[in-house]
């Protein structure tokens, strides 16, 4: 299992006067360190109007800067927001090819549908996002490998145009898809592209289901969108490594996990959906009549994974506005193995869990919340020392 770095570029309030400049410079320093330590890939998200939750609004520029200060680490755009009002496919192809040349062929390119608040800001019909992302997946490899390109659909009419430059990697950079549901993991497999997921709130049992769906779909893939199949699964989760478990907590790991949990559900406007689903499931679990087959399934799941049920209950309390102590949030998530926090020994043990699930790349999400820059750098060094242990065949 390869160890990568994942970043949102976060800057929680209160803000000092130069916080934006400092964040960008710190990100560059972290990327340079990751390159020296031997991490496999630096993954940079794309979000807009994210404010303190994510300043990564122009990831192609950040990745270009990183490309000029690093030598070996691969550069992952995870992921380009694919609906056309965000990024026209021609512009995606052009920018990606330039970055591939500037980095000497180190680009990894993912696509994503995005989510409600960003769709609203860019005036994007939600019911068209999946189809537009699929079109982008099918268009990009053709733009990169054909001398002239044409495409005709309800939304695009491109007639025999040259797309330049072509990527440095031949036939083209590896393609990935951001995945957050069983359907999206299946779609990634059908497309023959890598899957980018998140384990922060998902217990290993659920991650195993996602990987299983992806592997079966990609096994059946006979018409990949690209010139080759990228059969890889990458997941990101919160990672913070210190000298001891206690030191990791004193650095602010619990507060960072709680801040990110609340911030992500707020940014993605997922509170209402989460609370509705949670309430429905709790009603079925407590139904004296049994709640039918669904109630039975939920009780079986709760019996097998009580830690998951407790973690969901904690998240529900946060969504309802309750001030849940940071330590309680942290313990709830840690109990279901959703966090990799502690000493090097603790982190290695938890990483082995994901390695055994068949994850190819673990994207270590280390710059989170208010964790100080120096604590993040120290964590990166300690995790970097684990790379040889996990990278063995």
The oligomeric state of the chains shown is single chain
Main sheet makeup: 8 strands, parallel, barrel
Q: Can you count the beta strands? A: 11
Percentage of residues assigned to helices? 40-55%
Alpha-carbon distance between the two ends: 9 Å
Query: What is the topology, as strand order, of the major beta sheet?
Result: 1-2-3-4-7-8-9-11
Gyration radius, in Å: 21 Å
What is the succession of H and E elements? EHEHEHEHHEEEHEHEHHHHHHEHEHH
Uncertain regions spanning at least 5 consecutive residues: none
The percent range for strand residues is 15-25%
The DSSP helix count reads 16
Structural class label: alpha/beta
Name the descriptors.
393 residues, alpha/beta, globular
Summed up:
By secondary structure, the chain is α/β, with parallel strands linked by helices.
Describe this structure in words.
This protein has 393 residues and is of the alpha/beta class. It has helices at 19-37, 59-67, 89-102, 116-121, 129-145, 182-191, 204-219, 245-250, 253-267, 271-285, 292-304, 306-319, 326-335, 344-357, 373-384, 387-390; strands at residues 2-7, 41-44, 74-81, 107-112, 149-152, 157-161, 175-178, 194-198, 233-241, 340-342, 361-365. It has an eight-stranded parallel beta barrel with strand order 1-2-3-4-7-8-9-11, surrounded by seven helices. A two-stranded antiparallel sheet has the order 5-6. Helix 1 (19-37) runs parallel beside helix 15 (373-384). The radius of gyration is 21 Å and the shape is globular.
What's the arrangement of secondary structure elements?
Blueprint: E1 2-7, H1 19-37, E2 41-44, H2 59-67, E3 74-81, H3 89-102, E4 107-112, H4 116-121, H5 129-145, E5 149-152, E6 157-161, E7 175-178, H6 182-191, E8 194-198, H7 204-219, E9 233-241, H8 245-250, H9 253-267, H10 271-285, H11 292-304, H12 306-319, H13 326-335, E10 340-342, H14 344-357, E11 361-365, H15 373-384, H16 387-390
Parallel strand pairs: 1-2, 1-11, 2-3, 3-4, 4-7, 7-8, 8-9, 9-10, 9-11
Antiparallel strand pairs: 5-6
Helix pairs in contact: 1-15, 2-3, 3-5, 6-7, 9-13, 10-12, 11-12, 12-13
């Amino acid at each position: 299992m390869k160890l990568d770095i994942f970043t949102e570029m976060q800057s929680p309030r209160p803000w000092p006067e130069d916080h934006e400049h400092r964040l960008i410079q710190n990100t560059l320093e972290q990327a340079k360190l990751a390159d020296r330590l031997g991490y496999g890939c630096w993954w940079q998200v794309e979000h807009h109007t994210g404010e303190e939750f994510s300043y990564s609004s122009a990831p192609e520029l950040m990745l270009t800067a990183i490309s000029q200060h690093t030598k070996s680490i691969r550069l992952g755009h995870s992921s380009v927001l694919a609906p056309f009002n965000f990024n026209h496919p021609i512009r995606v192809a052009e920018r990606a090819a330039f970055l591939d040349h500037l980095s000497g062929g180190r680009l990894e390119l993912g696509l994503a549908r995005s989510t409600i608040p960003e769709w609203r800001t860019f005036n994007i019909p939600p019911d068209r996002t999946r189809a537009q992302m699929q079109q982008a997946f099918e268009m990009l490899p053709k733009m990169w490998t054909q001398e002239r390109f044409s495409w005709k659909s309800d939304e695009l009419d491109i007639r025999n145009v040259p797309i330049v430059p072509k990527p440095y990697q031949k036939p083209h950079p590896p393609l990935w898809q951001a995945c957050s549901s069983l359907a999206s993991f299946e779609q990634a497999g059908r497309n023959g592209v890598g899957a980018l997921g998140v384990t922060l709130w998902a217990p290993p049992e659920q991650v195993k289901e996602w990987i299983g769906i992806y592997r079966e779909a990609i096994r059946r893939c006979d018409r990949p969108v690209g010139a080759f199949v990228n059969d890889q699964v990458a997941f990101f989760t919160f990672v913070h490594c210190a000298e001891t478990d206690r030191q990791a907590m004193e650095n602010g790991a619990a507060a960072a996990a709680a801040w990110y949990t609340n911030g992500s559900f707020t940014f993605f406007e997922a509170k209402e959906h989460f609370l509705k689903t949670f309430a429905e499931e709790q009603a079925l679990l407590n139904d004296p009549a049994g709640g039918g087959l669904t109630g039975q399934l939920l009780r079986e799941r709760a019996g097998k994974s009580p830690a998951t049920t407790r973690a969901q209950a904690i998240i529900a309390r946060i969504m309802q506005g309750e001030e849940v102590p940071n330590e309680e949030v942290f313990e709830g998530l840690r109990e279901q193995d959703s966090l990799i926090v502690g000493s090097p020994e603790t982190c290695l043990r938890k990483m082995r869990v994901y390695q055994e699930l068949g994850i190819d790349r673990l994207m270590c999400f280390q710059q989170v919340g208010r964790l100080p820059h120096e604590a993040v750098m120290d964590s990166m060094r300690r995790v970097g020392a684990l790379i040889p242990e996990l990278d063995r065949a």
